[in-house]
Structure formats: structure tokens, C-alpha cells
Amino acid sequence: xxxxxxxxxxxxxxxxxxxxxxxxxxxxxxxxxxxxxxxxxxxxxxxxxxxxxxxxxxxxxxxxxxxxxxxxxxxxxxxxxxxxxxxxxxxxxxxxxxxxxxxxxxxxxxxxxxxxxxxxxxxxxxxxxxxxxxxxxxxxxxxxxxxxxxxxxxxxxxxxxxxxxxxxxxxxxxxxxxxxxxxxxxxxxxxxxxxxxxxxxxxxxxxxxxxxxxxxxxxxxxxxxxxxxxxxxxxxxxxxxxxxxxxxxxxxxxxxxxxxxxxxxxxxxxxxxxxxxxxxxxxxxxxxxxxxxxxxxxxxxxxxxxxxxxxxxxxxxxxxxxxxxxxxxxxxxxxxxxxxxxxxxxxxxxxxxxxxxxxxxxxxxxxxxxxxxxxxxxxxxxxxxxxxxxxxxxxxxxxxxxxxxxxxxxxxxxxxxxxxxxxxxxxxxxxxxxxxxxxxxxxxxxxxxxxxxxxxxxxxxxxxxxxxxxxxxxxxxxxxxxxxxxxxxxxxxxxxxxxxxxxxxxxxxxxxxxxxxxxxxxxxxxxxxxxxxxxxxxxxxxxxxxxxxxxxxxxxxxxxxxxxxxxxxxxxxxxxxxxxxxxxxxxxxxxxxxxxxxxxxxxxxxxxxxxxxxxxxxxxxxxxxxxxxxxxxxxxxxxxx
Length: 641
Description:
Blueprint: E1 2-6, H1 9-18, E2 23-26, E3 29-32, E4 35-39, E5 45-47, E6 74-76, H2 81-93, E7 96-100, H3 105-117, E8 124-126, H4 134-141, E9 145-146, H5 151-181, H6 194-210, E10 215-225, E11 228-234, H7 252-260, E12 265-278, H8 286-297, H9 301-314, H10 336-344, H11 348-355, H12 391-405, E13 412-423, E14 426-437, E15 461-473, H13 482-490, H14 499-504, H15 517-526, E16 530-533, E17 536-539, H16 541-549, H17 558-571, H18 577-592, H19 597-606
Parallel strand pairs: 1-4, 1-7, 7-8
Antiparallel strand pairs: 2-3, 3-4, 5-6, 8-9, 10-11, 10-15, 11-14, 12-13, 12-15, 13-14, 16-17
């Protein structure tokens, strides 16, 4: 008997449906011919709690830290024992085993750790499915690989799980116990991803709160030129008081010039015209979709993730959603027309976009060199029926389909014009943009660019019709929203101050993963560290106090970004796990030594921030179950925060 172990029931059903012959259900599995397909429910196993290593560790004590397991143990998650028993029974009957976890680091871990935990010693094949449509699953079944090829990925995921346990268990216990000494009755949860994300919000809120607006002044002039009118803006020279962005800090020079301008004549002294072509935005990764859906529809990152999971599992309308890739396999190009015609036929909006697609075009999105374990989110070809989808599901599906359809539209072609005028020996500038070919742009509701300028000729004369001075103020940075915080987590190098560290960060490095970013935000809200105020995410007094009490490095992204690089090196066989974990333990000892009750007491007393929407869950006498209370639902979050 061949046993296929899928990551979740929806994938198991899709695999069984793609196998030849009729299938029948049995407890915890589906049988099709000589193949049995069973499933996990996300992670069936988790890192054992400290008291599994030593019963004395059930009691939280500072003098017991750091807790460092010598031989790591896994334990079944709550409600997982029944399915584990099913898999154990089936493994005893199996002649061969196929690992069918999701095609990512955590998917590799959660199935392989079950296979190893239950003692299977035989060969294991690897099935990689990113599209639940039957033809796609059948193609994947015909391309089984040796699971040994993915052993480095498993070791990286295992190292991540152990490192997160060490970091979260030890620092959460240390700060919670120190918090008790400081008079705080509750768990202070610390995680290697969640805490730097909280730090981003706390620092942004402090910048907003401490911001002192400064006035500045701009002078405009409406000009008559040979073939029309335009508005130009004064460029004050260095003899005037300017800030570091060239803004005028005193009104008097602008007001004096404005009085002299009406009726003045000048000349167009410099003209630049440049034609530009802009390709369509690439198909979505999950994070890019979360950013767009938050901006357009006000959806939280978690709502977008949950919607994508429903479109993937329940409706089978899209490919694997937890992807960090924005490119598509080249082999998909040949079937793209049929796929999109099938996907778009049931929706009026999509049919309209489909009608304008030219399937003889090939965009940069089709690139095997950019596709790793995942490819970008795309329709599967199954017809969308708006009556069977919620309003949110329909909106998100249209976004996904639109970005793939846009690959078959022409580039957006524009002409950008910059004009520089001299008036009363002063420089004025104007800028405009003309659309030569709208290309893909009608599919997108994008912000308007500068309106076009009238036809201009360098050297032509101009006359001032009217002029005025506008009083403005510098503005503080915007508070984080779901969209901007997800984007910050994707592009974390922008928030790294050390130039040497920033240079080492690769473009794809970030805080969290596609699968966990939404959950990290929701965890911080649930724990009372963040609150939502309209669309904004703001830090609470408790969240601000926690960041203030921790060593600065714990609340900053440098450590976890470099940590992810080291995990990537393990996954790519460029490094071993042992040195990574040894360095972490050395780091932990230093961090634990900095826990200070007086510093925490001062941080709690002086904290600034919002009041929490609801108090976080109170601790039990011996601390939270499992030591940190870190995990959300195992079916929704694979990676620790």
C-alpha cells in the first residue's frame, strides 16, 4: 500500500480525486486503489513544554533560566491524538510513504516530523502540490521526488522551531517574572518576530506623538504660454531660509515676490520631455495582496489570508495562497488563455477585462528562474460564480485574476514633461504627464498623476496671470495600518539603522513569513499590545512599556532578519544548525542578564499609548500553559512568532 500524508484534509481530498479509479472514505483517510491518502491538521505535534524535560520547570523561576533541552521532545497538540493514531496505524500497513506537505519550509516540517515521530524507517517520496485543480494534482503526482532532497529545508524549519522555543520560553518567563517584581500581574510575552513588529509600531507612535509641526510656504504662479495656461512653483534659492528638503521657512520672501509677479513676463528656459513605458504590476504574492486589499477594501491582513484559504480550499478558485513569489512558471503560459477564460466567464467585471487581453503577449511574469517552492497567486481555471462567494471573496478573487489578466495588456505609455521658467530672475518649475497608451491602467484604480501641460517650446515667452502664497505645515508620519505594517514586515531592511547590517539583507528577507504575518498582527492585538483605531494600528500603554523595558535589540528587526538569513543558509546547505543554535544560546544568556525590575517598573509607570480594548488574559499561578501562550490555532498558524 502507498500512503500519502497530506498537510490538511482539503489537499488530501484533491489528491484522492486525482488518483485513478473510485475512492472510498474511511476513518481519517481516503482509499483509492492501492493508495491511501491521510492528512494532518496543520501541526499535529509541537515542542514539548519545559516540564516535559523536568517537572520542576512547571513552576516559573528566574534561577531556572535559561531552559536548554539536551534532547528535544515533541508532544501531540490538543485534539491531535486521534489523527496521529490513524497515521500510526496506516504507517504499519504501508509499503511506501509520500510526504504531501505544502511546498514551503513549515509544510516540509509538519509532515516530516510526524513521519519521524511515528518511527517510519522506509523511503519517503515528496509530492509538491500548489494548485488543487485535478489536472495540476495529476501532473504533480507524475513528478514525485525523493524527500531526501528536502532534508535541508526540514532542518532549517526544525531549527526555527527550536530557536523560537528557546527565545520565547526564556524571555517570556524572564520578563513575566520580572514584571511580577515590578507589580505587573500578567504575562509579558516576548517573541523573536512579534516583539520587533511591536517595536516598529511603538517607535512610529512615538514619532507621531513627539512630532512638532513646522510651517513652510510655497509660491505658485499661473502662467499664460503660447498654447494655453499652466501653474508653476517657485524654487527659492539658498539665500533664503530653507529646511533640508528645500522648503521655505519664512513667508516674507514669498509674499514680496508674489506682489511683484502679476503681469510679469518671462521665458521658458529649460524643457525636458521623456517617454516612459511601465509594465503591468506582477501577479500577487500573499503579502502584496494583503497590502492592496487593505488599501482598497479596508480588509485586515488576517481577513485576506482567511479569504484566500477559502478561495483555495473550499472553492478551489486560486492556487496555493501562502506564497512569497510574484512570478509564474513558464509552462503555465501555454494554458493561460484557457485558464483565464474558464475563471472569468461567470463574472461581468472579469469578462470585460478578459475581452481586452491579448494572449499573444508575454510579460516578465513568466519566469522559471524567479519561481521557487511557490509561484504567484493565480486563478485555477474553475469558473467564478459570484452567487456562491461572499462579497469579500469575490473582491479578493477579482484582484488576483486582474493581476494575471494584466500580463496580457500593453505597457502603460506616458510622456513626462518638466518645464523651467525664469521670471523676475527667479526660477519656477512645472511638471505634467500625458498618457500616450493607457495599456493595463484601466484595470486598476490608481492615483491620478500630474495633469498634462499644454504644448511647449523651449525659449517661448510667458506671462504671469496670477500668483499666490500657500501656508503649509510639515506633517508627522502616518500611523501604521494593516497594509503599511505588512509592507514594513516585507521590506524590513528599510527600518534597519546599521548600514553594514542593511547591506547584508537580501531583498526577500523580512519579518515573519507569508503564512504568519497576519497572525502576528492579530496576536499583538489579542495580547493587548496593539489596538485598532479606525484603520490605524496603535500601540497600547502595555505594548509601549514592554518595548521600553527590553534591551533595544529585542525590539528591533536586525536580529530576526539576520536570523532568517542563517535559516536560509541551512535550507540551502550552506550552514549547519548547531552553530546557529549555539550562537542563539550565547545571545540569550546576555539578554536574560538584562532583565531589570526597576527598569520595567519605570517603563510601566511612564508608558505612553492607547488603552487596550480588553485586558489580556490573566496568568495562572504557575504561568501560562505551555510556558509562553505563544501559539494561535494550529490550523491557522504554522510558524511561531
